[in-house]
Design a protein that fits this description.
- The complex is a heterodimer of chains A (319) and B (217).
- Chain A has one domain (65-318).
- Chain A contains twelve helices and no strands.
- Chain A has helices spanning 3-35, 52-62, 73-91, 109-130, 134-165, 170-176, 181-184, 186-200, 211-214, 224-249, 258-283, 289-318.
- Chain A starts with a helix and ends with a helix.
- Chain B is mainly alpha-helical and 217 residues long.
- Chain B has a domain at 150-191.
- In chain B, 72% of the residues lie in helices and 0% in strands.
- In chain B, helix 2 (25-46) runs antiparallel to helix 3 and helix 3 packs antiparallel against helix 4.
- The radius of gyration of chain B is 25 Å and the shape is globular.
- Classes of the chains: A mainly alpha (319), B mainly alpha (217).
- The interface between A and B is medium-sized, with 33 and 28 residues.
Chain lengths: 319, 217
């Protein structure tokens, strides 16, 4: 792998990182609007408001960048970058197609992805504390509590797939994947996806940013470009979570004509999962803080442990 | 063995191994990252701002992860990030937020044990450095061979060669877990008992708990 090859791969990852979250954001605008009997953005760019998010970006960039006088300046300004950059790094190791279509093969890929995604949450905590605002602090507290509850089931569900494949590498898992893994790992897949939603603070797990209780949680004091970076991190998170669920549990590039159209399958599965994320936002009410904790510890953790036991038993039987 | 023989042995060993005087790129990076990690660690314990200390701890722990990575121990590096940065520091920040750590410096957080702590740190550091340097003085790891610290190698070493210490550690952690649950539930278990009074204060409730515990013991 020479320098030029590395450069092309990094450019491709950067392009995906800049385009895919905006696509998800626009899809959310339109899908949510139609589900609620509206039409959504119609004017920006001409055709069905396709450039709405570009216009939003221009608007955010023009706004004044305000740091509250009581805030911890450096931590406050650093927080959006800490929240956003991990998702860019994670995209490098997610395989899109068979063989060479991955930014970089990492031996312990599953652990790498989960570890780096965990770092992103530090951004919300830093922003929540450094804003010197009680609503921000409450949002940060809820974020931390939620993260600690949902990190465990997510890790256990991912470990189940790694056990089934006998490797921690994401391309390795896909090489070992068979169609009957779909029903075999379905419980783990549901746990992983739900825990991922909670980690992204997406509805119905959006108590950390509950607008009717604590304004906008950790992001209350942010404006302009830094606020836009936090929003972008949320949508990049949706892309990463959907792609990871597709790779780990839905077989990634496996499908008819996988030799030539593998990457289409990956993108298609990711897009369907991203649509489910949007759909859940429109259809489910927000869970209360105690309900969120109860779902994690009394439903998801036992289910994840059950999935690990099932994986172990089946693995021993078929060997 | 005479002194000359020992000298010859040392020379032969030095010739067989790469020396310190012509470091490779990886070794230079290793030392630089080590210095940065040390700096972050020193700031962690000297800064007056509590939350800043936790954030500098992230930098120090991340630096250690990079060092693992440079030694090709990829799996250990990611676990280091996952457990320490992703969980332990989040727990720390959670605790600091619960206690409403102020934005500015917190002068009352300094306990006055600074000289004692410094002495303890220096003594333990000296012991560890001496021990590690003495134990691995002439051991060289060839990082060029692939897969030395890969997940497979680490897993095989852990679950074949070191399975007994691993299990002992698991039991220890389990004991700590059960202990934490017992400690946190002790106050709650006795609460239904003093329900008949209805107006029992907190202190009387705790007294009851203590007596119940003694009666059961």
């Amino acid at each position: 792998m020479d320098a030029l090859d590395v450069l092309w791969r990094l450019l491709a990852v950067l392009l995906a990182f800049l385009v895919l979250p905006l696509l998800v954001g626009q899809a959310e605008h339109k899908a949510m609007a139609h589900m609620q009997g509206r039409v959504g953005p119609m004017y920006a760019g001409g055709f069905h408001g396709w450039a709405q998010l570009v216009a939003d970006g221009v608007k955010f960039a023009q706004k004044e960048d305000i740091v509250p006088s009581g805030a911890d300046r450096r931590v406050f300004q650093l927080a959006p970058a800490v929240a956003l950059l991990p998702y860019l790094v994670v995209l490098i190791v997610i395989p899109v197609g068979d063989g060479d279509m991955v930014g970089q093969v990492v031996d312990a890929g599953v652990f790498f992805v989960l570890a780096v995604m965990g770092v992103g949450v530090l951004g919300s905590l830093m922003g929540g504390w450094a804003s010197a605002n009680k609503f921000s602090l409450l949002g940060g507290l809820r974020t931390a509590a939620q993260l600690m509850a949902y990190e465990l089931p997510m890790l256990l569900a991912a470990a189940s797939v790694a056990m089934a494949a006998g490797t921690l590498s994401l391309p390795g898992i896909l090489d070992a994947w068979q169609w009957w893994w779909l029903p075999w790992q379905i419980v783990g897949g549901l746990v992983f996806f739900t825990a991922g939603l909670a980690e992204l603070q997406r509805p119905p797990f959006d108590a950390p940013v509950a607008d009717s209780e604590i304004i906008f949680g950790a992001y209350t004091e942010y404006t302009g470009l830094r606020f836009a970076l936090f929003l972008l991190a949320e949508y990049a998170g949706i892309v990463v979570l959907s792609a990871l669920t597709a790779v780990l549990f839905l077989g990634g590039w496996h499908g008819p004509f996988a030799d030539t159209l593998g990457w289409v399958w990956t993108l298609l599965k990711t897009a369907v999962l991203a649509f489910v994320v949007i759909w859940l936002r429109v259809s489910y009410p927000r869970l209360r803080e105690d309900q969120i904790q109860r779902v994690a510890w009394t439903v998801l953790v036992p289910l994840a442990l059950f999935q690990i036991a099932l994986t172990g038993v089946v693995k021993v039987v078929i060997q | 063995m005479t002194l000359t023989e020992a000298g010859h042995g040392a020379v032969a060993e030095a010739a067989a191994h790469p020396g310190f005087l012509s470091p490779t790129g990886v070794e230079i990076v290793f030392v630089l990252v080590g210095l940065a990690t040390l700096g972050a660690a020193v700031v962690t314990v000297t800064t007056k701002k509590l939350v800043h200390a936790a954030l500098w701890l992230v930098a120090a722990l991340g630096g250690v992860a990079v060092e693992y990575l440079l030694l090709t121990a990829e799996f250990i590096a990611w676990v280091q990030v996952l457990i320490y940065v992703g969980s332990v520091v989040v727990l720390l920040l959670f605790g600091l937020m619960l206690t409403k750590a102020p934005i500015g410096p917190s002068p009352d957080a300094d306990s006055g044990n600074r000289p004692v702590a410094l002495a303890a740190a220096l003594v333990s550091a000296a012991t560890l450095v001496t021990l590690v340097v003495d134990a691995f003085r002439t051991t060289w790891i060839d990082l060029g061979t692939t897969g030395r610290g890969s997940t497979r190698v680490t897993g095989e070493a852990l679950f074949r060669g070191w399975v007994l210490p691993f299990e002992a550690l698991s039991v220890l952690l389990l004991a700590a877990l059960v202990g934490a649950i017992v400690l946190s539930r002790k106050g709650k278990a006795a609460r239904p008992g003093d329900g008949h009074g209805g107006g029992g204060t907190r202190t009387s409730g705790h007294g009851r708990t203590g007596r119940d515990g003694e009666a059961q013991g």
